[in-house]
Amino acid sequence: MASGSGSGSGSGSERWSEGLETEAAMAMETTDVELLKRAWRNEKAAPEILQFEAALVLRAREQIQLLEETLEEFTENGVDDLVVSLYQMDLDRTLFLLRSYLRIRLQKIEKYMIHISKTNLWNRLSEQEQRFAKRCTDIMEKHLEQSVLSRLPYGYQSILKQSISSEEDDMVPEPQLDTFVFCKTKSAVGAFQLDDTGDEIVDLVADDLYVLRYKSIKGLVEGGRIDLV
Amino acid sequence: MAGQSNPDLSVFSAPEVEFLAEDEMVEIVPNIRMEALNMICGDYGPFFPQIASKVPLWLAVALKKRGKCTIRTPEWMSVERLTQVLEAERESPREFQPLPFHYVEISRLLFDHAHDDIPDLYMARSLIEDIRDVRFHKVETGLETISGRTHAVKLKNLSAMEVNIVRPFMVRALQAFYKHDSPHLIQQPRAMGSRQPQVVDRGPRRDLRPR
Amino acid sequence: MAFSDLSHLWHRQTNKKWIYLIMYGRRASQLLRELACSETGQLTTFNSDAFDQVIKECNEHNLQLQSLIRKIEDENLDIQTTRNEDHFGAVIHHLSLIRNKHCLMAYMYNRAETIQSLRWKVGPVLPQEIQEKLNYSEEEYFKNHSAAIESYMSELDLDLTVDMVPPKDPYIRVRVLDDIGEVCLGDHSISLTKHSLHFLRRTDAEPFISQGIMEEFLE
To answer: InterPro entries per the record (chain A) (predicted)?
Structure first.
């Protein structure tokens, strides 16, 4: 089944530029399922939410819909059960990946909604996710407000700050970027600086497995140069 | 969220690792004629009796279950190769031999669903088990060498299932060492109105030890 | 995580004054102990007695804090620079209050996380025995949160509550363990005699498997 072009939908077109990596990968005959699997794996393993793969999700959904229609035709035309069941499995596998990918993102939004909405992570969400995050935040705030905060003394009622004397928001759960992740290099990255000071350099060779601090390889993950496993 | 426990510690469930392994390619020999399958995950076939064809493992197993093909045992699963690998694993206590990233799951799926296609089934099965044991032992002893100076670890050739098993302990250990090595990450009590100056997080010193 | 990371308060000082602080924080820490003792994903009944008492403690701390500050001001001392016993007394009440707030928030927040996970595990309607464990605000929270997920899914036109685990072959090879007899499956009927092998839809086979009269057949 050929990959759709991903054009045609007006929404979020500014995000298409993010798909350049994706386009490049497609040129190397990587299927969308392969790309979806990578996005799913990275999203599962990364502590913070990653850029929403808008174009990829759109293409995957087009292909899913097409296959669903084809399967209906098959059944009507009495195509061999064997063939139907094989295509059904292909469909089930793709649907699982898509659903699980979207679910992990919702889970991260649920966990870090306040942090996400205060930082530029907000731009990584799809429009629908942004609406979901907004709604979740309102609901959580209302809940904590009526059960705890409104019953505390003046000066201690903020959801973001411990008390009025805190200068910054010190009560917001944030993803732990210091955590260690397992990652695989796709191609040689070369000498890579692990910290700001340049004290620690590691030579990341192709197809090797490392355990590193997420913070130090964040850029490589976002740029699609390294995969989390 | 159901089925998705603590994201820091167990990233993939065992069924999810198996799901990933099912996309690895294997060779089948069909006994039927079937048109090409143009699937979302790729195009496979057309299939002709006695003509080998490459398909993902899940498709191979599905066809095998329906009695439509035999699965060719991958080259690395031959008794000869496995014997070599086992020997090499035993000889090099600090290195892992190159095997497919999903060797544990692939071999298990084949043992479960295509046992009659595997030459020397029992031998192959016990070799894989031995290899797994030797490697797990190596992983365990490797963990003992993690110290306050270990802030990056290279695990050449470690497989998916091994990664999954070692992950919770490894991440927690590295994190603990990292934290204790960075005094500024250990919170100090704050007095009213006074705040610590913000420290730029440079992280502690790292030491990359090849394993 | 700011909501729960308070360990530093416990270790720092062995000064006797801190013993009072530990007493102050005790009830709140019981709430957290309750969280820590329950299994992940499991809820205990909302402890409204302890919860209300901690809220009360907070307000008492505040009264004490305010009166100490007033005392410093009445003595015409500079509130910013004074470091007398009243100042340190006020600090202790402030920190105790913050600690209690942390515990209350951690209690509610962690429960809320469990409650939102129920939408995925249990569905949009909670069974009575779970419902009984929630307080009013939590019941409302569950409904609102479910509705948020619902509306996200309907915007997407995709149900995300299915496919929680990776899919398997929709067909399965089974061995019949008991004489079941003639059974109608979909548009055809088959005879399920003891020891016979069949290739069935997983969904058709599952009821028999759970009754223990059929098993998946792996060679």
So the answer is: GINS_A (IPR021151), GINS_bundle-like_dom_sf (IPR036224), GINS_Sld5 (IPR008591), SLD5_C (IPR031633), Sld5_GINS_A (IPR038749)
Q: Which chains touch B (3 or more CB pairs under 8 A)?
A: A, C
Whether residue A110 contacts residue A136, with contact meaning beta carbons closer than 8 Å, is answered with yes
The verdict on a CB contact (< 8 Å) between A209 and B171 is no
Q: Which of A91, A17, A102, A96 is nearest to A57 (CA)?
A: A102
- Looking at beta carbons, which residues of chain C come within 8 Å of A165? 94
pTM here? 0.84
Question: Residue C134: phi, psi to the nearest 5?
Answer: -95, 150
Full domain range(s) for residue C203 = 171-216
Q: Which chains touch A (3 or more CB pairs under 8 A)?
A: B, C
Structure tokens at C199: 């290739």
Instruction: Report the C-alpha gap between C92 and C68 in whole angstroms.
Output: 11
Read off the pLDDT of residues C190-201 as tens digits, 9 standing for 90 and up. 899 999 999 888
Show the tokens assigned to C140.
């409302």
Q: In whole angstroms, what is the distance from residue B185 CA to residue B188 CA?
A: 9
What digits encode the pLDDT tens for the residues A161-196? 988 888 888 888 899 898 899 999 888 888 887 766
Picking from A69-83, A206-220, B180-194, which range would have the lowest pLDDT averaged per residue? Answer: B180-194
- Do C57 and C106 belong to one domain? yes
Distance CA B68, CA B63 (A): 5
CB atoms near residue A84 (< 10 Å): 16
Q: Could you tell me the maximum CA-CA distance found in chain B, to the nearest angstrom?
A: 81
Measure in Å the smallest separation between the Cα of A2 and chain C Cα atoms: 22
C contact chains, 3+ CB pairs < 8 A? A, B
Contacts of C102 in chain A (CB under 8 A): 162, 171
Please name which of A36, A18, A19 lies closest in space to residue A100, comparing C-alpha atoms. A36
pLDDT of residue A72: 94
Instruction: Collect all residues with Cβ–Cβ distance below 8 Å to A222 and sequence separation of at least 6.
Output: A50, A51
**Total Cβ atoms within 10 A of residue B42:** 19
Whether residue A156 and residue C166 make contact (CB cut-off 8 A), yes or no, is: no
Q: What is the ipTM of this complex?
A: 0.83
| Length of chain B, in residues | 211
Flag whether residue A84 sits within 8 Å of chain C, measured between CB atoms. no
Structural domains for chain A? 13-172 (1.20.58.1030), 176-229 (3.40.5.60)
Same domain assignment for residues C194 and C118: no
Q: Do A140 and C138 touch (CB under 8 A)?
A: no
Which residues numbered 134-153 in C keep a CB inside 8 Å of some CB on A?
135, 137-138, 140-141, 144-145, 148-149, 151-152
Identify the band that residue C169 occupies on the pLDDT scale cut at 50, 70 and 90.
Answer: confident
Residue C62 in contact with partner chain A when CB distance is under 8 A: yes
Residue B9: band (very low, low, confident or very high) from pLDDT cuts 50, 70, 90: low
Amino acid at A45: A
Complete domains list, chain B, with CATH: 13-72 (3.40.5.50), 73-182+204-211 (1.20.58.1020)
Q: Residue B89 and residue B83: Cα distance in Å, rounded?
A: 10
